[in-house]
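Issue: copy button drops trailing tokens. Both records pasted manually instead:
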Amino acid sequence: MSAALAFDLLIIAALVWSAARALTVADLFRGVVLFIVFGLLMALAWARLGAPDIALAEAAIGAGLTGALLLDAVGHLRAKREPEA
């Protein structure tokens, strides 16, 4: 097995694992972090497929902007759950 094939299989396994964990984890913060990890791995997969423009867009929008917005939403949800003193 070549090193490139082994690396591609590792990326596939990491993508499937992070997607499954992001959907099944109970904690919202961990789910968002796993979503960001999935986006970064997806960007790496696009780069390996020879599409650097799509990889850059995935990293910037999929992992960066969307991840930041979701983390902000989780922060607002946690602030509303805490009893006001």
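Record 2 (pasted manually too):
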Amino acid sequence: MHDIGHFIGGKEVFGHNGCERQAPVFNPAIGEVVANLSLGNADILEEAVEKAKKAQPAWVAINPQRRARVLMKFVELLHHNMDKLAKALSLEHGKTISDAKGDIMRGLEVAEFCFGAPHLLKGDYSDSVGPGIDMYSMRQPLGVVAGITPFNFPAMIPMWKFCPALVCGNAFILKPSERAPTLPMMLAELMSEAGLPDNVLQVVNGDKEVVDAIIAHPDITAIGFVGSTPIAEAIYSRGCANGKRVQCFGGAKNHAIIMPDADMDMVSNAMIGAAYGAAGERCMAISIAVPVGEETAERFIKAMKPKVEALKIGPYTAGDDVDFGPLITAKAKETVTGLVDRGVEEGAILAVDGRNFTLQGYEKGYFVGASLFDKVTPDMEIYQKEIFGPVLSTIRAESYEEALVLAMNHDYGNGAAIFTCNGDTARDFANRINIGMVGINVPIPVPLAYYTFGGWKASGFGDLNQHGEDAFRFYTRTKTVTSRWPSGVRQGAEFVIPTM
């Protein structure tokens, strides 16, 4: 048992006079408290912001190449500490060690992309746009910015936020999930070890009180958020109303259309990992399978059922013998099993029932077995809601067009995939689907760091995505300069708009 504070001024602090509220941090595999987390408030945030404001001008005065070198050292430290980081992540989240390392690596890749900051921050230059007149643009940082990140990727998503923000010259305030706070604190410590000046990256732990303070703070110019759609929409609307630049990413209900010509062995293997990896606690998890045609549906269920039943569930300490671990909280377990109950009540066929899963020696853990539904319909709650657990729902479509309309008509638009051997069908799907990230024979189409990540419809709010070039656009603003150096020629006053 240990206490977790905040990372302010290059060190861990515990607030004012030790009077902060605390929240328990659990190991979800055993259902026991492993740490007590200090919950910040508006005063703690104010302290962090004031220090960030003072530190940011000196940080942006360092040229982009040298700022990028800090991230280079940070990446070196991530590799060196990979095992330690992964164990700390798994302890609080519950995901397997290999999955935890994947979480860290996908964040690390964004840090590597940011090595290119000297190029990505270049402006444009045009000489002689008029008589003796040149014009050029500059990309400049916003100042102090903030990120509010979720529990399910406690390494990756914080790095998606703070790496591009910092290399652009901003100071960054991170408010991670109170359910998995240790990794963000460790990342801040490694950034400090890598040479980042004190107060440029700070971690303020907390709950809604800190979130509200971030939204209201006049010196925080931008907010990035990842979490549920209702909260994403609320933060987006309130942040924009307060004059901030805001990008918010919410929930998902990702469809995978399975065409009759698809290789069913490949499909079933891909879907097992996409639906049940990390216990389904991924915004890019495939939670809806749409086989086209009754024969395809029967083959799909026949291929999936034994694989779902054979999944190995257990604590991260079991190593490679485990496919996925527990859910994050007891409440999450109750929600997931409740939605499976609801699916049965509504008439869906529960081909594999994971509700009564138990693990000897871990009876207090938040484990849920894998469930597979068949013959789900669009009016069912399990089709409409994001379950965020190890549950795959199968909805049968008579035709490709019917399957396409299902995905296009859903409220969420994060990711979608199609499995087919037909290039024409795949191309049509990619062109027509109103979804932000698309996979063709790829079940979890998370773009690499040099492309951007973002959903459409109720899955994303704001016009710029995460990582890739969009991150540099989000964390900077453009200044355009029109320059004339007089050469002895004097002109009279001009009263019409210049047309050059």
